[in-house]
Design a protein that fits this description.
Helices cover about 5% and strands about 40% of the residues. The protein is mainly beta. The strands form 3 sheets. A 4-stranded antiparallel sheet has the order 2-3-4-8, with no helix packed on it. It is globular, with a radius of gyration of 14 Å. About 25% of the residues are buried. The structure holds FE2/S2 (inorganic) cluster.
């Protein structure tokens, strides 16, 4: 079978919080969708799970800019994650998953990898 991804609707524009993140559930696990209205593109999607603690809290982190990079700071220990690449700025061996995200009318869609779709279906 051919591998395919799907663009799942995870929330609508009304759910988004400017300069902040919202947590959504996907078949690939919890995802944090960030809306930074002063940036182009303005939407970012990364794993909601903090890799240092395994807790689902990254959507509640404070967003900002570090050296021109859009980042979120983990609410617990304040590590910063680049919202575009998922890279942790304090530890080069740690990164969180990132997801392509787009606005489709008023729906926010996140691209879910095919492998995870299939393992859920199996
Ligand atoms: S996107 Fe609004 S201050 Fe950075």
């Amino acid at each position: 079978m051919k591998a395919r991804t799907s663009w799942d609707v995870v929330c609508t524009v009304e759910d988004l919080v400017p300069e902040s993140g919202v947590a959504v559930w996907t078949e690939d696990g919890p995802v944090a969708v960030f809306y930074l209205p002063h940036r182009l593109p303005a939407l970012f999607a990364i794993s909601h799970t903090d890799p240092f603690t395994g807790k689902n809290l990254l959507a509640r982190g404070i967003t900002g800019d570090l050296k021109g990079q859009p980042v979120v700071a983990s609410p617990l220990y304040k590590q910063h994650f680049n919202l575009q690449t998922g890279q942790c700025l304090e530890d080069e061996e740690v990164a969180v998953k990132t997801y392509p995200v787009l606005l489709d009318g008023t729906n926010v869609r996140v691209e879910i990898p095919a492998a995870n779709k299939e393992s859920v279906a199996a």
